[in-house]
């Protein structure tokens, strides 16, 4: 195995689940795609100079989940990508020409068939690392701040907390264990460090 330039050692890592004895680690990444969808109603009476009688902006929220196995270099690749749910969120209606807006039917609206990919926002991100055999959650960190780089489960033989940043929900646990990076006295993700 090649040397690493981030957390961990040059030795291959090992993991054996204390509960079931399995040696594989799974990773799940869940998130919500927030997509603005804009529909316009053309002004057919000529009242509005730009030709738009009304706009209807809706937010579409799509829940996604990706999963795969953690490899020997602490990277993971999604073997499965699944759309879990789609819901319409907030809607904003703005009328510029009341005459056309009042006469309009559902078929008069022009839709946004292909939303701008730059306007899609990823929200509600959640990462989960678990034993692939018994589905037990495993505490983990990252090789770079802000959930960047490789994934470092605390139960792997090459885990070194001083070369990792904790997943945000494990920040308190790492502090309780004295696993704060020796070169950084601030908490992860911009929160100020404290002993409480």
Could you characterize what this model shows?
- There is one protein chain.
- The chain starts with 24 loop residues before the first strand and ends in a 20-residue tail after the last helix.
- It is built from 2 helices and 7 strands.
- The model is unreliable at 1-10 and 186-196 (pLDDT under 50).
- A hairpin with a 3-residue loop joins strand 5 and strand 6.
- The chain folds into 2 domains: 1-24 and 135-196, no CATH class; 30-131, no CATH class.
- Helix content is 6%, strand content 39%.
Distance between the termini: 40 Å
Taking the sheet with the most strands, its summary is: 4 strands, antiparallel
Shape: elongated
Q: Which whole number gives the mean pLDDT?
A: 85
The structural domain count equals 2
Structural class: mainly beta
Strand content: 35-45%
Give the strand tally: 7
Low confidence ranges: 1-10, 186-196
Strand order of the largest sheet: 3-2-1-4
Estimate the helix proportion, in percent: under 10%
N-to-C order of helices and strands: EEEHEEEEH
If helices are DSSP runs of H or I spanning 4 or more residues, what is the number of helices? 2
C-alpha Rg, in Å? 24 Å
């Amino acid at each position: 195995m090649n040397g690493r330039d981030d957390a961990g050692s040059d030795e291959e890592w090992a993991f054996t689940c204390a509960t079931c004895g399995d040696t594989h680690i799974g990773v799940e990444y869940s998130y919500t795609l927030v997509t603005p969808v804009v529909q316009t109603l053309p002004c057919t009476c000529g009242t509005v100079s730009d030709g738009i009688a009304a706009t209807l902006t809706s937010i579409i929220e799509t829940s996604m989940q990706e999963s795969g196995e953690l490899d020997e270099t602490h990277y993971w690749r999604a073997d499965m990508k699944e759309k879990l749910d789609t819901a319409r969120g907030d809607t904003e209606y703005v009328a510029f020409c009341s005459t056309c807006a009042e006469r309009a039917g559902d078929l008069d609206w022009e839709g946004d068939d292909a939303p701008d990919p730059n306007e899609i926002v990823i929200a509600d991100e959640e990462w989960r690392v678990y034993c692939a055999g018994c589905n037990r959650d495993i505490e983990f960190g990252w090789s770079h701040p802000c959930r960047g780089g490789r994934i470092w489960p605390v139960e792997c033989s090459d885990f070194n907390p001083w070369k990792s940043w904790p997943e945000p929900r494990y920040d308190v646990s790492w502090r309780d264990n004295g696993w704060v990076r020796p070169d950084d006295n601030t908490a992860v993700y911009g929160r100020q460090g404290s002993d409480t």
